[in-house]
Design brief:
By secondary structure, the chain is α/β, with parallel strands linked by helices. It folds into 2 domains: 4-25 and 257-296, ATP synthase, gamma subunit, helix hairpin domain (Helix Hairpins, Orthogonal Bundle); 33-254, ATP synthase, F1 complex, gamma subunit (Pyruvate Kinase, Chain: A, domain 1), CATH 3.40.1380.10. Helices cover 63% and strands 13% of the residues. It is built from 7 helices and 5 strands, in the order H-E-H-E-H-E-H-E-E-H-H-H. The chain has helices at 4-60, 94-111, 123-131, 149-165, 196-200, 203-208, 221-296; strands spanning 78-84, 115-121, 136-140, 170-180, 183-192. Strands 3-2-1-4-5 form a 5-stranded mixed sheet, sandwiched between helices. Strand 4 (170-180) and strand 5 (183-192) form a beta hairpin. Helix 4 packs across helix 7 (221-296). It starts with a helix and ends with a helix. The relative contact order is 0.19.
């Protein structure tokens, strides 16, 4: 059985760790509230951009199919995979589930005879993909906790240029969408080329929009759509970054709370172990005193 001093040292170490995990939980909770506010402000704007893009596409009609970002390549040989992860860990399976989803998707593409071109945001995604021996076509780090729209524009521009140049024939994005602090849903979204359903919406969505207003477009709808489609891709990437940031803080807060609770249980177990050790030492001392007294009598 360990001595009292050893157990006391273990208790002190666990208490120090518990202080750190509690501090990290409070910091993550504060950042989560700010991230939730950003999501609440962004979602209506992103929905509005999507609605405007659909309306312009409907007004452009057949002209919309001539836009490069709406035109599918003759063959799909290379597929760009954008994985949105965090810059840091200590967030449970937040990063690992994105990596696993991306690896599974790449395996499915390989079975279909397609090659994967890897793009990753966040140091965790970049390091994990590189560790697996894959070459990265684009890396974006240092802003996972608080992404700016300029960061999303940089990523979107690289992906758009790669698609226009023919280096990739399709672009898929995998990220954690924020549901609640306890739930982050792995979301798979096709970025390029925009599908007919994404850009025009299905019949049910069109019916939900209600009567369409009569709009005179200046310049023509095709020119407006040419400008809106890149904005639509940028806002999709930005939304993924913001959702991922909120999901990371929620996952980290949950993980640190669980770690603090586990530390409390370990402290309780060690305290019981220390009490048993103290009791054993006292019992041993009593037995020695009794044995000495008997020896003198």
């Amino acid at each position: 059985m360990a001595s009292q001093r050893d157990v006391k040292n273990k208790i002190a170490s666990v208490k120090n760790i518990q202080k750190i995990t509690r501090a990290m939980e409070m910091v993550a909770a504060a950042r989560l509230r700010r991230a939730e506010q950003r999501i609440s402000a962004l979602r209506p704007y992103a929905d509005a951009v999507g609605r405007m893009t659909r309306q312009a596409a409907l007004a452009a009609g057949a002209e919309a199919s001539r836009l490069p970002l709406l035109t599918e390549h003759d063959s799909v040989d290379n597929v760009g995979l954008l994985l949105v992860t965090g810059d840091r860990g200590l967030a449970g399976g937040f990063n690992s589930q994105i990596i696993r989803a991306g690896v599974r998707l790449a395996a499915e593409l390989s079975d279909e005879g397609k090659a994967a071109a890897w793009y990753a945001t966040g140091r965790r995604g970049v390091s994990s993909i590189s560790f697996r021996g894959h070459e990265l076509s684009g890396t974006y780090t240092g802003f996972a906790d608080k992404p700016a729209y300029a960061d999303a524009r940089t990523i979107a521009d690289d992906l758009i240029q790669a698609y226009i140049d023919g280096r990739v024939d399709r672009v898929e994005m995998v990220y954690n969408s924020y549901v609640s602090p306890l739930t982050q849903r792995v979301t798979h979204q096709r970025l390029l080329p925009l599908s007919q359903e994404d850009i025009t919406g299905d019949e049910d969505a069109a019916a939900d929009d209600g009567p369409r207003p009569l709009v005179d477009y200046e310049p023509d709808p095709e020119a407006i759509l040419r400008r809106l489609v890149p904005d639509y891709i940028e806002i999709s990437v930005y939304r993924a970054l913001v959702e991922s940031a909120a999901g990371f803080f929620g996952a980290q807060m949950t993980a640190m709370r669980s770690a603090s609770e586990n530390a409390g249980e370990i402290i309780t177990d060690y305290t019981l172990q220390m009490n048993r050790a103290r009791q054993a030492e006292i019992t041993q001392e009593i037995m020695e005193v009794v044995a000495g007294a008997e020896g003198l009598s």
